[in-house]
Amino acid sequence: HLIQRLPYYTADHFIAVTDYIYKRFIEVNRIPEQKCSVAQNGIRPIDLDNVDENYAYQAFSIPVDRKIIVTTGRATYYKGIDFFIQCANELVNTQGFEHLHFLYCGDGPDIKDFHSLAIELNIGQNFTFAGKRDDIRKILPSCHIGFHAATGEVGYSLSILEYMSAGLVTITPDNPSTSLATSDMSNGLLYKPRDIQSATNAIIHALDKPLAQKIRENAIQDIINDYNIDNTNKQLTSILRPIFT
Q1: 15, 16, 17, 236: least CB-packed within 10 angstroms?
Q2: Is the predicted pLDDT of residue 11 greater than 60, yes or no?
Q3: Alpha-carbon gap, residue 13 to 31, rounded angstroms
């Protein structure tokens, strides 16, 4: 677009948080390539040496013999919370995985719909609505699987990175805007977007102990090496210094 080349009408430089967004800047928004850079999204790694493995069990009165599958995010259909509930129903009520417990942390405009859906599907004994939380980094390390239900994001979801950092088997949709940080069967598992059978199969795979251990170890190391906020800050500094000095 011509406007992206005109001074005063466009930014001096565009910084994408993922390679996917970088390509969209150039291919969709028609921003000149020389005006685009990537500073990969990152987080502060979770200190796994100082976590309480029973935190979620105690906070939400979850039976200790259950494996916890957690998801976080705003309570909207776009974020796929209804899909998460439907997956819980498939595994618990249809396939008989009664030792699984599904934990949703978040709040938002569609929360009443999701409460009603959980009641309708009769999964209350295996599902917890935790509401909006300020202790997510304490909750996650005491869970087993991190499930991402949204089929699209503007960049790496910080929730996905936090699941990985917490040592969870992270399960994400096989979609370019959500799965860039996830290598299937290496540091996470992928499923077909909005496909209940594919998603529940991924959860079942995540229960395999040797596979889960490998995925956890790889995910933790990838956050430290590749998705650390310190790396993001260094990338930003290297991009901005020549532009504004």
Answers
A1: 236
A2: yes
A3: 9
The alpha carbon dihedral of 103, 108, 114, 119 has a sign of positive
Give the CA distances from residue 23 to residues 30, 40, 203, 236, in Å, rounded to whole numbers and listed in that order: 10, 13, 31, 18
Helices first, then strands: H and E counts in the chain: 9, 8
Token pair listed for 76: 């909207």
Helix (H, G, I), strand (E, B) or coil at 86: helix
Residue 234 has phi, psi (to 5 degrees) of: -65, -40
Task: List Cβ<8 Å contacts ≥24 apart for 54-58.
Answer: 54/142, 55/135, 55/138, 55/139, 55/141, 55/142, 56/103, 56/139, 56/142, 56/143, 57/142
182-192 pLDDT, tens digit per residue, is 999 999 999 99
Indicate the pTM of the whole model.
0.91
- Type of residue at 106: G
pLDDT of residue 177: 77
Secondary structure class of 218 (helix, strand, coil): helix
Q: How do strand 36-38 and strand 14-16 relate by DSSP bridges? A: parallel
Are 148 and 124 in contact by the 8 Å Cβ rule? The answer is: no
Rounded to 5 degrees, φ, ψ at 84 are -60, -40
Report the pLDDT value the prediction gives residue 196, as an integer from 0 to 100: 98
